[in-house]
Design goal:
The protein is α/β, with parallel strands linked by helices. It has 14 helices and twelve strands. A hairpin with a 2-residue loop joins strand 10 (245-246) and strand 11. The protein is globular and about 65 Å long.
């Protein structure tokens, strides 16, 4: 039985997580989990449109259990638009599976004055009743004041009977789902500056934090992930992106100096690396076709990486960034695989 077979239930979020995970092999890396302090149950793998995936394969991802989808309506819109048909089918008004989908959208226009325009574009394009997580995108080192201004809108943006809900109702029409959920359920921000991410990670105005994280860029571990308590019901949700890419190139390419015969991590291995970290809820992917979906899900079913595997991948990432010489690596820390 797949997530699409599950009828709407009235049980609590924690019960729902247990129920959904029962459809996957028992593992120390549960496929579904609660997204931080939100009331959202998410698949640990999320699908974004950055790989220009088709709508058919987006629907295939949902059929396989993926329920977290990330959509951009302004920057990169041409790339993302290939999945829009599937999102209209899954999340549009009248969809019978809408409550089983977590729709995250983003705007890269960091302006409080433009928030309504960004929302309206997304509501009209996708024909939706509500957005589960609305992200302010690409928050860089110089965006601190802009983010501050944008997040002051959080009380007006999120939840039922908000200012923005009433505005959207006037523009696109009233629906029962919109009245119940509000136009936006939760607020997120996608950070390209880890210091700003750390600064805002405990703000009551921000429900979900999205940060770059991979084997070659690990600062999020010390500054964000390891500062959080997995059992804390008030911690923010954590989503990672860029799990497979670095400024030095794709991380599946073998770094110079890696000894012959050493483990060469696959793309799914790199997803597992992020998901093996403390408090990471979702690893966002940019799949291009369904075969990549199957490979990623099969990898997650293996569970978390071991500490030895994580330590090896740390060395692998340092080699990628030319921060480590092969001669400095102890042979005891290498992992050989055929």
């Amino acid at each position: 039985m797949l997530i699409t077979d599950l009828a709407p239930q009235s049980f609590t979020a924690s019960d729902k997580v247990d129920c959904l995970n029962a459809e996957f092999p028992e593992s120390d890396l549960p496929f579904y989990r609660k997204l931080g302090r939100t009331n959202l149950t998410v698949s640990c793998l999320g699908l974004g449109g950055g790989g220009s995936i088709s709508s058919d394969d987006t629907l295939y991802a949902f059929e396989q259990g993926i329920n977290y989808f990330f959509y951009s309506s302004d920057l990169h819109h041409y790339i993302y638009s290939s999945m829009s048909g599937a999102l209209r089918q899954l999340c549009g008004r009248g969809s019978s599976v809408r409550e089983k989908v977590i729709l995250a959208t983003v705007t890269y226009i960091k302006s409080p004055e433009m928030a309504m325009a960004a929302l309206l574009d997304q509501f009209v394009e996708l024909g939706i009743d509500y957005i589960d997580v609305f992200f302010w995108g690409w928050i860089g080192a110089n965006d601190g004041s802009n983010l501050h201004d944008c997040l002051q809108l959080s009380p007006d943006l999120r939840g039922a009977n908000s200012v923005y809900q009433r505005s959207i109702e006037r523009m696109v029409g009233v629906s029962e789902r919109l009245k119940k959920m509000g136009a936006v359920r939760y607020i997120g921000a996608s950070f390209h500056d880890i210091n700003l991410a750390q600064q805002w990670s405990n703000s009551p105005l921000l429900d979900v934090v999205m940060v770059r994280h991979n084997v070659a860029h690990r600062s999020a571990q010390s500054q964000i992930f390891n500062q959080l308590d997995q059992q804390d019901p008030h911690r923010p949700g954590i989503v990672t992106f860029k799990s497979t890419g670095s400024h030095t190139g794709p991380l599946w390419d073998v770094p110079q100096g890696l000894p012959e015969g050493c483990w060469r991590p696959s793309v799914p291995d790199l997803y597992r690396y992020s998901l093996s970290q403390n408090c990471v809820d979702v690893c966002l992917t940019g799949w291009q076709r369904r075969e990549e979906i199957d490979a990623a899900i099969a990898s997650i079913k293996q569970g978390k990486l071991t500490s030895a595997e994580i330590n090896y991948l740390n060395l692998y990432g340092d080699l990628h960034r030319h921060q480590l010489s092969p001669t400095d690596i102890s042979p005891d820390h290498l992992i050989y695989r055929s």
